[in-house]
Structure formats: structure tokens, C-alpha cells
Amino acid sequence: MNFKTQNWTRNPGLVAIAALLLGAWLAVQASAAESEIKEKPDYKPFDEVTKGYEKIDGFLPLYYEKKTDHLLAVIPQSMIGTDFLIAESITSGGRLTGYQFGHMVVRWEEFNKKMILVEPETRHLRNESTMKDVIERTYTDSVLLSTPIVTKRGNDPVIDLNAIFKQDISGLGPFFGGRMDASISKWSEKKVFPDNIEIAVDAVYNGKGKSGKKATIHYSISRLPKTSYKPREADDRIGYFLQARKDWSTDHNDKTVFKRYINRWHLRKSDPSEEVSDVHPDDQIVFYIEKTVPVKYRRYIREGILLWNKAFEKAGIRNVMAVRQQTDTNEFAQLDPEDVRYNFFRWIVSGSSFAMGPSRANPLTGQILDADIIMDDSMVRVWGDRYDHMIVQGPATDGDPKLQAFLDAHEEWKFADTQTRCMPSIHDYEAENTGWEMKELEHQFPDWVHCSFANEMAHEIALGAAFSAAVAGEEPRDEFIGQWIKLTACHEVGHTLGLRHNFKASSWKSLDEILANDDPNVPTTASVMDYTPAVYNLDRSDRKLYLPQCVGPYDDLAIAYGYSVPLPKQDEKEMLQTIAKSVAEKGLDYATDQDRSFLAPDPLVNVYDHSDDPIAWAKYKMKLVDTLRADLENWAVEDGESYDRLRRTFSMFLYEYSRVIQYATRVVGGQYFHRDHKGDPNGRSPVEIVPVEKQRETLNFLAEHVFSDKAFTFSPQLLNKLAPGRWHHWGSDASDFQQEYPIHDQISAVQFWALFHLTNPITIGRVHDAELKVPADQDALTVPELIAKVTNLVWSELDQQAGDTVYTNRKPRISSVRRSLQRNHLQLLMRIVLSKPGQLFPADAVAVTRLTLAGLGEKLQNCAGNKNLDVASRAHLLDSAAQIKKALDAGYEL
């Protein structure tokens, strides 16, 4: 039939019949389509997908096709929804080689033909309580990535690992110059074990218009162990890395919702009923010394690791630490350092002087699962640092985040040498091998933990090398280097045990006690977790003990808190409180990274100091420097060598001089901090103002050793032999862009940083507050006294009678060194006056400084009238007076 359209529209019956026929036809088509869909499989057959692939069976079965460098992984159904650990290391790649970069607890979820990698939200406890549903709705998990299921082996999904790991999933690209290029990155390792897999990618990173850089990124995927491990709560009196989690199920009257658990290994006694027992054999911590470690240093590393057994035995567990040596031929030859089942001590050659001892802990419990230590070969090489830059940067050299934040916000407080002021970008030409990666890592990854013990130790070894050359005309003895390696190994192992730095430990003993001890079995510092320097005999005689070679009393305390096992009828909480409340005993003080800064109040919290008295330590180190510098030209450079060696040694001594000055200066305005809790035996007040006599002693010390030009008297013959390094090439260790030695700038920088501490708003505010913290009937350092005292010391020539002496430009009334000091001081005082009262500085401090400057201006005008003055001194006095007048006038502008 041939129906016309209008017939359909005009005949309702035909329309109804047609509709029924059409519906029937559509139903048949839909049924046929559904049947076809049911018959069509969801995925290609497993055997077809994996044809030609090599099977590697284990924890996560892998399938690898060599021709295309393609790697698949089977995710067993038993693993879906189950937490496991994924850890990342950098096996090769410049300065970052050997780093345990990160780790996290994750789980797989299956949805819509995809596998989703989820990081569970671990910061909030999900207890069985009325709050559980609210917590789960509020704090949700993070989706790290999703990847298509390519096939299934039975019910087990199979995923493409190329699509996951041949891309920059961790954001490392900036450190290697660009984005990972999957097309030319290849698998370098594919190992499968019963509880973990170890895979690695030889990654190529390509930048725009640049050649690619290679790095090997290692991934370890492992099962979380099921043990009887019990988390242990942290105590702020003892320093452990920790896992902090909020528990909203706590009572509303509780003083915190946080549960803080320390990071520690799961250690049990073989016999729990014994007060002292061997460690359970399944729990012993074994470190393998990698075959790359130089043979002559292996024994020191071994000894450093095993030192901790003394502390563990005092805590009731024997033989916790064990060491195995890997060689090319023994039973450990094929062990993989990246395998999470093994703890390794590794040796690398990145060109940076550092060592690092990170560990991986379960964020749910704090249980440490794996640890590796890396030590760089450069640490024990006597290479000169760029001391000229370090002197100028002063305390900012030490990686001080508080000081750096202050200087970033107030750039006018930075010290800049003449070269930098004239050519601000000049240091960009000298920026190779400056370790920028560490700073960038810390900035981009705030949880990054970096220990700079060995990095800063390079200077200490250089100082030891200078001492050895001056005394015996030779390189440092192996025993001296060995003591450094042993201490470093012990320090880094301490980190792998969960311990944080303790920068107050070196203030345990007096300098006399430290120098008198030459027994390696007697501790000279309360903890190896401090950064402790070497000590030397000032008469240049030899010592057996240059550095601490055993753990100290604080280490014993910390290990006891973290690892003591309560006896069968002993209450664990009471046991821990008994241990922790002993912190008021001498040698048990604790202060860590957050307590250390050039701007921090406690002058006993430093790195590379070693005495209970910063003034005594500074005087000792200054005397050592002066002793070695007396005949510097005779031993610092040998016949046939370039004089640039002399230049580097001279700068190294000036840097050491500057560093101990900074420690001493912090006594002014200082406050001792203690972590004692209320009720602790012999408990101290949390804050003690440094006695005023000690603060005044410091100001007098600065007058003699920093402000006086006699402290910086060097022979012209010596200064004219400070030749520049002439090797200008990549990474040069003997290159100086500035040929002449800028002696005035270097001295000025040393003086500036001392003045900076005395006049910056943090110190001034602290002294101002201390006026209320010291009882009214006791003497105290006040802001007026501090401002006036420093001004009188810096400008002492104004109060001295000039007499009838006629001064010349070669024999001036005020030396060039003192004029530079006075200009720095004047600039700092004017910053106080020009600041808005009460903004950076207390209003009282601004007013007092204004009064001080007014009086100083009058003195300057009077002294400038002396007709016997030399031109430079007169010009300096008049110019300073003019600046003061301008500053005082400007300061009143609203």
C-alpha cells in the first residue's frame, strides 16, 4: 500500500494501529540489542591481552611485554578496598639520588570499569561513636588517580602500569627540567615478592627547547603488616616524629581532641617477663651496609649503628640493632636497597655534602616499616664552601625559616655586599651546585623532613683539615674522618628510630669539662641528635676524642620512652610518665628544629656549638682561629699550588669567627626555655630570663671582639696573597668572579649581623617585655640601656679626648673598619625611628631611639669641629649628623 501522509492524520484508527505496530517493532529491536549486549564481553579476553607477555607472579602479579616495554598488573579482589603502602624513592638523578621521596597509605576501589586509587583521610579517627557519620561526611578521602581496567583475570582487574607510572605523578618534573616523556621512558626494574613489588622507571624529563634529563624513580608497593603493634602516645618533653590525628569522640571537657602517636618500630622482648631481655628475633632492626661504601669507612658506620644498642639495653631490650655487610659475592649481594623489606646504609656521589636518615611509618599508627640512610661522598672531602657568600648571608646561611621570613618581608634589613649592590644578578652566574633542590623541595612539599647535619658538617671537616695541616702539614687522619662518619651514622640512625633533633643537648657540659675528656666512652653531649662540632687543643697537641662517640643521657631517656616494654603487671601509662617527668635533670633538656632560629629566644639552642656558655665557646673558637691564622701563609698553601687555597682558608676562618659571634650575640635579650610539666621533680619555670649580668657580659664581649677594629687586623702581605680561583667551568670548586678580595665588605658583614640582632624588632620587643617578666626589685636589661650601651660602644671615639694629635688620611681618627660599623649602626637606628611607633617596634623603643639619635647628632657636630681631624673622619661625622637630622625630621611626618 501507498499511504499518503494526510490519511494517517485524518484517521485516528489507522494512527492507533500504526502506533501499535511501531511499538512492537521497537520492542523487538530493543530485545535483540539487549541480547547482543549480553553476549558481548565487557573486556577483551585476558589471554588475548597478555599474549606474548612474561608473567611475574607474587603480591601483585605482573605481566611484561619486552618489545613495547609494557607492564600490566593484576589487582586481586582480596586487595580491593584494603589499605596498602606505596613508597617512592629516587634511585638516580643528580643531587636527589637515594632520597626516600614520599610514602602514603592507599587503597584500590573498582567503579565503572575503572580502578580508582584512593588515599584514605587519616587525620581524623573514625571511632564507633555517634560522631562517626558526621566525621565521614565532613572529612572525605582523596582520589589520587583513576585508570581503565584493560581486562580481567577471572574476577581480578588488570590495569596498565605504563599509564600510571610513566607520568610525573609526584610533581618531580621541576627538579629534572620538564615533564616526563612516556614515549622514551622505560621500565628498569620489575621485582615481585610475597608482600611487596618493587618497580622502577628510567624516566626522561623534557623541557621546552631543552634536552631531556634522566632520573630513575622507584616505587615500592607493599602490604601493611598485621602485628600486635600498639601505638604509643607522644609527650612534648621528648622528641619523636609523630602522627597527629583528631578524635572528635572525645569528651567535650577534654583539653584536646588530638591523639598524637610517636613513630617507632614494633619491638618485643623475647621474654616479656624479664626486666632485660633479647629482642624478639622477628623484630630485630637490621641495617645492610651497601657494597658501595668505601671499605675504610665501613667499620665506623657499623660502630655508629650499633651504638644505639647501649640505649636499648638500658630500656630493657638487648641486641635491637644488627648490621650486615653487603659485598659483590656474599649472600646479600642481590638485595635491593629500594626493597622495603630491607634497611640499607648507602653511599652516593651527588656532589653535595649531606647525609639523611628517613623512615616510612604507617600514618594510622606510627609504626615504622622501613628505613634507609644515605651518605654522600662529598661529606668527607675537604672542599671549600663559598665562604665569601656565607659571611655576607650570615645566619641566613643556616636554612633558618623564621629569619628568612623576616628578611623576605623586610628586605631593607638584609645585608648586601658591594658586588651584589652593583650587580644584583651576579650570583646567578655562580649558582651551580648550590643545593637549590633542597630548598625547593621544602617549599613545594611542606612535610618534607630534611636533616642538614652532614651538609653543615662540611665546614667542620674543612676546619679540621686546616688544623691538621697547621699542626702536621698533612691531610686529616682517617681516624678524625672516621669519628665524623661514626657520629653521623649514629645521628641518622637516630632519625630512623623516630627521634627528632635535640639542639639543646650540646649545652649539657661546660667547655672545660668537654676539653678535659678524651675518653670515647664518656659522652660530651647529652644527645647525638644535636649537631655537635669537633674540639681541638689550643696548643695544637693531638687528641683521641674530637667528637662525641657514644650516645648521651637524653638519648637513653628518649629510647626508654619510645621502646620500654612494661612488665606483665606494670601499667604502661605510669611507666611512661615516670620516664618523661625526669626531664628537669641535667642533660635531659630538649629543643628541636622549631625552637632553633637566629630570632629565637633561647641562646642555648644552636647548631655546632658545644658548651653551656655561648661566650666561653665563642672565645675558645676565636682563639683557635687566631692560633691557626698566625702562620697561615706557611701551611695553607704549598709550593707549586695556587694562592686561592690561602684565600679559601682565610675566608673559612672569618666565617667561623662570624658564626660563633652570632651564637654569643643571642644571649642579649635571651630567655631559657624548659619543657617541664607542673609537678615534675625539681620542675623549672617554662621561661627564665637570662641573668642581666650575662647579657651585659655579652655586650662587653662584642665591644672587644666585634666592634673593635683590633679584632680585624690583618697584615697587608697576607691580604695581598688572597688570590682568586681561576678555574671557571661547570660546578667549579675553585672559581671567584670577583678577583680582588673585598675585605671591608667581609668585615662589615660580620659586624652587621651582630648589630642586626641587637636592633631588630624581635629582640627589642623581647627586651621590652622582659622588663615586666623580671620582678621589680631585681635588676634587668631595659630598652633604654640596650640602645644607649650599644650606641656608646659603637661610637666610643666621640667620648674620647682627641688631644693635640694631628690625624691624616693614612692615620685617621676613626678607622675605616669602625666607620663602616658606625654606618651600619646608624642605618639600623634610623629604621627604628622611621618606623611607625607600635607597629614593628614598641612605641617606647622608637621614642628612646629618637632621643639617642638626637644626642648622637650633637656629639657628631661637636667632634667634627676638631681641626686636627683627617678628611675621611670629618666627612664621616658630618655626613652622619646630616643623616640623623633628616631622619629625625622625617620621623615626625604622619
Provide structural commentary.
It is a single chain. This protein has 894 residues and is of the alpha+beta class. 37% of the residues lie in helices and 15% in strands. It has 28 helices and 24 strands. The strands form five sheets. Strands 1, 2, 3, 4, 5, 6, 7, 8, 9, 10, 11 and 12 form a twelve-stranded antiparallel sheet that branches. Strands 16, 18, 19, 20, 21 and 22 form a six-stranded mixed sheet that branches. The chain has a two-stranded antiparallel ribbon with strand order 13-14. α9 (387-393) packs parallel to α20. The longest helix is centred in the first third of the chain and has 28 residues, at 12-39. It is globular and about 115 Å long. The relative contact order is 0.07. Residues 1-10, 428-438 and 442-448 have low confidence and may be disordered.
Give the arrangement of secondary structure elements.
Layout (H helix, E strand, L loop, with lengths): L4 H6 L1 H28 L6 H4 L4 E3 L5 E4 L4 E5 L9 E9 L7 E12 L2 E6 L12 H7 L3 E12 L2 E5 L1 H4 L7 H4 L2 E2 L5 E7 L3 E11 L6 E11 L18 E5 L11 E5 L14 E2 L6 E5 L5 H12 L1 H7 L2 E2 L2 E5 L17 E6 L6 E2 L2 E3 L6 E9 L10 H7 L7 H9 L8 H5 L13 H9 L8 H20 L5 H19 L14 H6 L36 H11 L8 H9 L33 H16 L2 H4 L8 H22 L5 E3 L13 E3 L2 H16 L8 H4 L23 H17 L1 H13 L9 H12 L21 H19 L8 H22 L6 H21 L3
Helix pairs in contact: 7-14, 8-16, 9-20, 9-23, 13-14, 18-20, 20-23, 23-26, 25-27, 26-27, 26-28, 27-28
